[in-house]
Amino acid sequence: MLDTDAHQGNGTMDIFYGDPRVLFISIHQDPHTLYPGVGFVSETGSGAGEGFTVNIPMPMLADGPLYERAMSEIVHPLIDEFRPGAIIRNGGSDPLYTDTLTNLGLDIDQLSGLIRSVAEHARRNGVPLVDLFLSGYGPYVSEGWLAIVRGALGETMRLEIPERRRYVSPEQYANIEQSTRIMLDELKRRLAPRWRIF
Question: Element (H or E) spanning 107, and its range?
């Protein structure tokens, strides 16, 4: 199960926290900065399920290239090693930079790209994909949902959001990039005892 919502999938995590039959991955905004305040890299499951819960807390304003890095270094390799019978992806439009409740930095094309990467990975490996889209806050939720559908189906429909992206200075972005790198390295270290890929 892959949760790409800006909010960590705490209910689903709790259900499967000790279950090695389900690989639960949540990529979400840093829980220091957003409800529900859980989903740190240290939360990796318990008992027989240790290592089967994977939390990827992205720093505020993280954009498409940083999400791509998390997907290529963590998510896709884990899916390959776990070899699931199906992938269930859920999450809404709230990673968009226009969301009024969250503080991530994906644009409309990057949100589609995130979902497309999951759908293409599933197709390449012959794994069924169930996509559940929900949530989002602010004026561009429906555009975000269309971006998710576009990505899941591999369509090329044109979507636009007229609202300008918040300016991020090169220094700010370097800090966001460094925070992402440190977080991903720490996550790999914690998952290494369970997964050969790390």
Answer: none
Interval 120-129: pLDDT, tens: 999 999 999 9
In angstroms, rounded to a whole number, what is the distance separating the alpha carbons of residues 107 and 160?
A: 9
Phi, psi of 180 (to 5 degrees): -65, -45
CB neighbourhood size of 175 (10 A): 14
Please give the pLDDT value at position 42. 98
- Segment 128-155 shows an average pLDDT of 94
Q: Which domain holds residue 170?
A: 2-191
C-alpha span between 144 and 127 (Å, rounded): 25
Number of domains into which the chain is organized? 1
Omega of the bond leading into 36 within 30 degrees of 0 (cis): yes
| Structural domain includes residue 90 | yes
State pTM to two decimals. Answer: 0.97
